[in-house]
Amino acid sequence: MIILCIFVALNIVSNFVTWANSSLINRLTSGDRLLILGITILLFIYYMKLDKNPQYAHATINTEKKEKDQNSNEFFTKPKVTFQDVAGLEEVKEELIEVIDFINQSEKYKKMGAKIPKGILFHGPPGTGKTLLASAVAGETKSAFFSASGSEFVEKYVGVGAKRIRTLFEKARKEAPSVIFIDEIDAIGAKRHLDSNNEKDQTLNQLLVELDGFNTDQTVVVIAATNRIDLLDEALLRPGRFDRHMYISNPNVKAREEILKVHTRNKPLDPSISISDLARKTHGMSGAHLSNVANEAAIIAVRENKHIITIAHFEQAIERVIAGLQVKNPTILPKEKEVVSYHEAGHALVGKILRTDMVHKVSIIPRGQALGYVIHMPQEDRYVLTKEELCDKMMVMLGGRAAEELIFNHLSTGAKDDLKKVTEVAMQMVCEYGMSDLGFIYNEPSMIRSLSDSINQEINKIIYECYNTTYNYLKKYRNELEKISTALLARETLNSSELDELLGDFPPTPKTKDEKEKLEAV
């Protein structure tokens, strides 16, 4: 580029000299001559500046530029989120209040010789509010909030990730008191081994040094979040680095009610809507799911040109989140529709017989990849299940395939998802809960590989026994199965009240142990 600029400049100068020696020069004034000379100099300077900004810059130059931008005042924020915006999680918030008090009134703790916790680790299922809690801690303390993701420190160039860690902590110390939040920390904090990536190891080592360094005077709290605490390195989890590990689980019914109140407080609801009933219908959902349900209900109401959100909109939103998008114009053969109706009727009838969970809705309207679905609504949150209750849940899942075999004498592909869930439950019974003939043992992955044949036999044995019992139940109550299937073909959807009206005085008296053994022996 430099040679090209010199060539252009020399060419311009030579042309200018040639032109100056011509007779035309006598016709130009001194002002014209200065103008031409000035244009020539400006063009030369322009070409020289082009050379200072090469087109093919190395990737590390762009990286350094980004890091300089991150060092600006916009690198951190001061969130306005407080604990009032975080519904549920009362136990976790009580623990965090101590950390907040330490940041706000650190002197009284230092007088007692107490040290602020270096780090807090949030772990649990996704969508349970880990990021929101970290932001609320910064909002309560009015501290500078530095947010980063674990993947931001992962680079192919050795030393870049470690430098970013140092820069982050240096900036946090300057703005102390401050809160550093690292989301998905398992991206850089995974266990080290012989085959580890050298760059990731250096980044993790730098993080360990910063968490347990000599600079302990500054009030800097590190909060991290992960969905896989089992992947993290032991050196990262020890006291002195992450002193407190807090498990953030899916909310219970009371917490779901509080979360729904937060997400519906700015929405026009029908006065007849009961938030407590909605909380019971959303069993097993996380905070992110509940936020999505409230938002979907509002969108559905707008789509129907309504001014208030009704319970019907919420029920459609729950189905949308659980089962997926409704297929408007399905191309299903009449024979397939009949098979689906008996399949879903089998799930619903076995659920009614065993009284596992209340059947909230049965439908043969396709949603997502499912041609039909049954929504169960547990009466209460359960945390401990017996072997019999786990078998009952498996029998409800197997009700669809058993109904198909009973009515059509065939096995179809419609039970794929059911079999996957049944296999998972049966494997947990054998490998984790000690509910098989292998004994009261917990199988580690290495043991599972060595005992794979025995484990498969036990899993098949449990599933086969549950399937036989399910088949015999449906055989005994075949009339009720056909009633439900016929109603589904006519209406496509049945809710709990319509199902009760259809079956009348059903289910029968609760099953006894003798009755169950008799059905298994048939």
Automatic annotation (TrEMBL):
<comment type="subunit">
    <text>Homohexamer.</text>
</comment>
<dbReference type="GO" id="GO:0008237">
    <property type="term" value="F:metallopeptidase activity"/>
</dbReference>
<comment type="similarity">
    <text>In the central section; belongs to the AAA ATPase family.</text>
</comment>
<dbReference type="InterPro" id="IPR003593">
    <property type="entry name" value="AAA+_ATPase"/>
</dbReference>
<keyword id="KW-0482">Metalloprotease</keyword>
<dbReference type="InterPro" id="IPR041569">
    <property type="entry name" value="AAA_lid_3"/>
</dbReference>
<comment type="function">
    <text>Acts as a processive, ATP-dependent zinc metallopeptidase for both cytoplasmic and membrane proteins. Plays a role in the quality control of integral membrane proteins.</text>
</comment>
<dbReference type="InterPro" id="IPR000642">
    <property type="entry name" value="Peptidase_M41"/>
</dbReference>
<dbReference type="Pfam" id="PF01434">
    <property type="entry name" value="Peptidase_M41"/>
</dbReference>
<keyword id="KW-1003">Cell membrane</keyword>
<feature type="binding site">
    <location>
        <position position="343"/>
    </location>
    <ligand>
        <name>Zn(2+)</name>
    </ligand>
</feature>
<keyword id="KW-0479">Metal-binding</keyword>
<protein>
    <recommendedName>
        <fullName>ATP-dependent zinc metalloprotease FtsH</fullName>
        <ecNumber>3.4.24.-</ecNumber>
    </recommendedName>
</protein>
<feature type="binding site">
    <location>
        <position position="418"/>
    </location>
    <ligand>
        <name>Zn(2+)</name>
    </ligand>
</feature>
<keyword id="KW-0645">Protease</keyword>
<feature type="binding site">
    <location>
        <begin position="124"/>
        <end position="131"/>
    </location>
    <ligand>
        <name>ATP</name>
    </ligand>
</feature>
<keyword id="KW-0472">Membrane</keyword>
<dbReference type="InterPro" id="IPR003960">
    <property type="entry name" value="ATPase_AAA_CS"/>
</dbReference>
<comment type="similarity">
    <text>In the C-terminal section; belongs to the peptidase M41 family.</text>
</comment>
<feature type="region of interest" description="Disordered">
    <location>
        <begin position="500"/>
        <end position="522"/>
    </location>
</feature>
<feature type="active site">
    <location>
        <position position="344"/>
    </location>
</feature>
<dbReference type="Pfam" id="PF00004">
    <property type="entry name" value="AAA"/>
</dbReference>
<feature type="domain" description="AAA+ ATPase">
    <location>
        <begin position="116"/>
        <end position="252"/>
    </location>
</feature>
<keyword id="KW-1133">Transmembrane helix</keyword>
<keyword id="KW-0812">Transmembrane</keyword>
<dbReference type="InterPro" id="IPR005936">
    <property type="entry name" value="FtsH"/>
</dbReference>
<dbReference type="Pfam" id="PF17862">
    <property type="entry name" value="AAA_lid_3"/>
</dbReference>
<feature type="binding site">
    <location>
        <position position="347"/>
    </location>
    <ligand>
        <name>Zn(2+)</name>
    </ligand>
</feature>
<keyword id="KW-0378">Hydrolase</keyword>
<keyword id="KW-0067">ATP-binding</keyword>
<keyword id="KW-0547">Nucleotide-binding</keyword>
<keyword id="KW-0862">Zinc</keyword>
<dbReference type="InterPro" id="IPR003959">
    <property type="entry name" value="ATPase_AAA_core"/>
</dbReference>
<feature type="compositionally biased region" description="Basic and acidic residues">
    <location>
        <begin position="511"/>
        <end position="522"/>
    </location>
</feature>
